Amino acid sequence: MEAAKGRRTSSNLLLRITDICKVHSVGVAENVGGKPKGDSIGGSSEDCAHLKLHPHLVSDHESCTGSSTARYEEAVVEKLLDAISCLKLAYVKVQQAHVPYDPEKIAVAGEHFASELEGTSGLKDLYVGVNKWSNPMYQSHVSSKIHERQKLVVELQADICKKDSELVLLRAELEELERSNMELKEKIDQRAMYREKKFDIGRGESIDMFIKLFESSSECIHDFTKLIVGWMKLSGWDLAISKFPIDKSVVYEKRSHKKYGVEAYFAHAMLMGTKEGYFSMDSYHHVMSFKDPFDALMEAPNSAFGRFCREKYLVAVPRTMEDSFFGNLDHRAFVERGGHPRTQFYQTFARMARYVWALLTVARYLKPRAEMFFVKTGVQFQKRHMESVPAKLTKDEAKISVGFTVMPGFKIGCTVIRCKVYLSMLDARDF
């Protein structure tokens, strides 16, 4: 059965070859009123378009089977004969385009002939590919390469998983180190704060003592702000979108200068809007006698200083900030119930609060009384009443104006304690 089929195939191939070889040359002459010679040979070249064979249509899997190799070889020969027929017809079209001479038809026919020739040359690569895939040694070589690449992929995937696990551990370790650094910084600040100064009010030293209190309060607010900014960075807060009461028209010289906006917020929250009943010189002497202000709170939680701490904490530390720092509102709840949390964060706040409370207390008992003042945004900078933060000025001070007040100033009669301001290039107004 197979032998008969093979004989029929060979006979067909011989007939095809004989048919192609019948015409050895094609004469082309102008035939007025009729078809040019050569049109009757095997049909048009368009009829041969379906005979093209694209090498990629033969899959590697099909080519790898030894039983189909002979069938593919026969198919290649069939396609080769078809391609030769189409090539001859394309050449006839080129000849016809010359009689009569038509440059456009010549160009089109030439491109078509080149396309047919390219398709014919592609059969060589197909034939070589079929024979290559029928070679068992080549199949074994390719198979070994595939297994080698698959093994490499598995190893790379395992390495990626290992690196991802290491990255997660390192990130957790980094966060833990950052938190440990914050706690160590708080302890260092706490020990530095233990070097307390006792201030005694005397008739000839009251203004000097008030200036020292002002400097200490300013320094404590600045240090507490540094602590808050560190917590904000650790918790993912963006200083650019935080709801601090700073004029949006302010242009910061550096990105890091946004911390002065946070400092201005805490200075305003701690110094403004305090009840008169929270201040007493008797309480002042008692509270300032403690080395650690938290001990004063533990001794008298509801004293004037204790009530001042509770009120200012609820005002200065927003609910959203506390929740993002600690993941809960335990501090706030404890303070609202009248207590003072024995935590590192609240104790740092209490140290700042004591100096601010002492400053406001003494300000009310000075003669004449100390009056606080702020500078509005856009006011022209004046050295007599203002101090630049950071301490850097441009050459032309006439064009410099106040962006916002970082730390308010005080006036005691004719004595002026300059306020600290952040400067910005705005339209200046008179002070």
Automatic annotation (TrEMBL):
InterPro entries assigned to the protein according to its UniProt record, in alphabetical order: DUF641_pln, GIL1-like, GIL1_IRKI_C
GO annotation (BP), single: response to red or far red light
Residue stretches making up the GIL1/IRKI C-terminal domain: 372-422
UniProt-listed Pfam families: DUF641, GIL1_IRKI_C
Domain DUF641 residues, every copy: 69-187
Keywords of the record: Coiled coil
Organism in which the protein naturally occurs: Digitaria exilis
The protein, known as: DUF641 domain-containing protein
PANTHER family tied to this protein: PROTEIN GRAVITROPIC IN THE LIGHT 1
Coiled coil: 167-197
